[in-house]
Each structure stands twice: as C-alpha cells, then as structure tokens.
Design brief:
FAD/NAD(P)-binding domain; alpha/beta; Amino_oxidase; Flavin_MAO; Polyamine Oxidase, Chain A, domain 2; single chain; Monoamine oxidase; 9-stranded mixed beta sheet; FAD/NAD-bd_sf; oxidoreductase activity
C-alpha cells in the first residue's frame, strides 16, 4: 500500500469539506480530500433531466439569517431565488377528512433556493479546487497519532497528514474509523449519540409539463398530518419555465420499493389535483437511511438535533491535530448548509491562526 504526504487531509467531500478546501487555498497548504462515496456532495443531491426542473433531494432551502453560506454563494457568483409558497396551502389534518385550501399567514420571512439546484454549489466549489486532490471511493479506516503527523489508513493507500479534518456525521465517524490512541470516553459517547441530519428522511419529487397547481383554487404548498406526503412545495426552476413539485415523504415508507412509494404519492396528489397529477414526466427520490456513507441503519433512536453543536466539537484531538467538523458540529443552524459552511470557517480560522 502506497503512502502519500499532505498538510491537511479532509475526510468527506460534502459541503464542509469542499468549503474548507476552498478556504485553505489562501494558506498555501497541500490539501487532500478523501470521499467514501463514488460521488461528491454529501447530503446535497440534485437530479437533473433534460428540459425539466432540477429536483433537490437533500439540502435545499436557505433563509436570510444564514449569512455565511449566502456570502459564499455570492463570492462564487451563484444566484439564489425566492421559494414560491403562494398565499394558500392544501392542508389535510386527517386521512378521513377531506383536504382543505387554507390561507397562509402573511409574514415577512422568506426562504431561498439555489438557481439550477443546490448541486450547483458543490460543482462550483469543485471547479475551484484545481490544486486539491479529491479521491472518491476512498474510505478512511483508521487514524493513528505519530510523533510529527497523523497516519490515516484507507482502503486504497496510507496518508501522513499534519492535520486531519473529519467532516463525516459524528455517529458515522465514531462507527467507521478506529483511533489510536482512543479518544476520551466523553467525546466518543457524544459522537455516538449525535443526531444525523436527514438520516431517516425520504425526499421525493415529480416534474411536470405545466404548473397546474398555480391557480386560485389550488396550491403547490401541501401540509398533511398523515399519508405518504407530509410537506410538498412548488419546485419549479428560477425562471418558472420548467415545473415540479417536491418535498418530504413519511419515513415509515423506507421499507417499500421505489415503485410502491411513487404510486402512493401519486394517489395522494391525485386526490388533491385530479388526474392531471398522474401526467408526470419523471419521479425522483432519495431514501437517506439507505445511504451507507451517511448513517448506519442500526443507529438507536436519537432526538432531533441531539448533541448537535456540542461544545466538545469545538475542541481538537490527538495532540491538536484532529478536527471533528461538519453540519452537526456547528453551534449555529446545526444540520443546515449554514452549519456546514460555518464549521469549515471555524476550522480554517483555527489553522490560519496556528500557521500565522
């Protein structure tokens, strides 16, 4: 097995890892990213079909208060646009009751989506990393503290790194990578009991030729307390030239196959919109509990956001050479894109201060 040297080894090519590598360009450090999956992006996934609206199946929405990620988008010249909710929503409180068209409250809060899909952020960051080595299908197996560096063994090669930054979901990091010496029990216990954002979510979407939901007696915003689809929204593109509906399906349906889930969703949409809902172009989905590089299915139940942003994640380990980063570790907007970017900035600031 070959050995490679690098100043910074980043484990995980999601938003945190790619943002950190982008920031590290200014420090003139040799940076390497390894990614266990065959694709990059982590929990950002956009499905694109020709002449159809792109469907985001992972991280999607931003709010104005998420300034770090919005500033990053601005610096990369990536446009955002306002999510269309409309003035009404289809609300079904109970499957035995007919759905109602209710008025949405007037408020000044808005949310944004990224033009051409959230994957645009991943693609643009990657294009900036021409001096950074990014290796997919490469899983970290162990990290061992040596006198002057950390030795990281993967399924393909060994790395000697001055610093290692894990951006994996904490529970996955704890399960998949052995450390020598072992971390203190207080941090391993926290790692194992940290909720993973999106871990049991099912994101689905349908593309259509026309936005039939956009008329006064209907809505593309759906809230249902029961049934397969729980939250659904207009997912048309920024130009409003190609159209889609997308949102969240009940996590209880993860054991069904894709066709079964699609048919249940269509039955619900047909109840709201009639047969025009059946004339879809494409159906896309992502069952996150099946993504082995996000979470292990045998994880015990954790409360949403449990241990997210824990103060132990702000510390460094293995002689100050190991950082535990990622969306779950940030103290602000934990689990969101803002948290992923903020976590990358936290690590960057720490490295910059030490090097300077």
């Amino acid at each position: 097995m070959t050995t490679k040297n690098t100043d910074v080894l980043i484990i995980g090519a999601g938003l945190t890892g790619l943002t950190l590598a982008y920031l590290l360009k200014s420090l003139n450090l040799k940076t390497t990213i390894i990614e266990a999956n065959t694709r990059i992006g982590g929990r950002i996934v956009t499905k694109r079909n020709t002449n159809e609206a792109p469907i985001d199946l992972g991280a999607t929405w931003l709010v104005p208060q998420q300034t770090n990620v919005l500033n990053l988008l601005k610096s990369l010249q990536i446009d955002v646009f306002e999510q269309f909710y409309g003035s009404t929503a289809i609300y079904q409180p109970d499957p035995s009751k007919q759905a109602q068209l209710v008025s949405l409250p007037n408020n000044d809060s808005v949310s944004y989506r990224i033009k051409n899909g959230t994957q645009t952020l991943i693609e643009t960051l990657t294009d900036q990393l021409y001096q950074t080595s990014v290796h997919t299908d490469t899983s970290a197996i162990s990290i061992q503290l040596k006198a002057e560096y950390l030795e990281v063994k993967t399924n393909k090669q060994t790395y000697h790194a001055t610093y290692v930054v894990s951006t994996l979901p904490p529970a996955l990091f704890n399960q998949n990578i052995s450390l020598t010496p072992e971390l203190p029990e207080v941090i391993t216990d926290t790692l194992s009991k940290t909720h993973t954002w999106m871990h049991n979510s099912i994101r689905v979407g349908f593309t259509y030729k026309t936005p039939f939901w956009k008329h006064p007696q209907s809505s593309g915003t759906i809230y249902a307390n029961s049934g397969p689809l729980q939250e659904f929204y207009d997912h048309s593109n920024a130009e409003q030239s190609v159209y889609a509906l997308s949102g969240f399906m009940s996590s209880n349906l993860s054991d069904l196959n894709k066709e079964q889930r699609k048919n249940l969703a269509l039955e619900q949409l047909q109840g709201y919109y009639g047969d025009q809902a059946l004339a879809y172009l494409n159906y896309e989905e992502c069952v996150w509990i099946d993504q082995k590089h996000t979470i292990k299915p045998e994880n015990t139940f954790l409360m949403p956001q449990q241990n997210n942003g824990h103060l132990l994640y702000q510390e460094r380990y293995l002689n100050e050479k190991l950082f535990i980063a990622g969306a779950e570790t940030s103290t602000v907007f934990s689990g969101k894109m803002e948290a992923a970017v903020s976590s990358a900035m936290h690590v960057f600031d720490s490295l910059k201060a030490e090097i300077n």
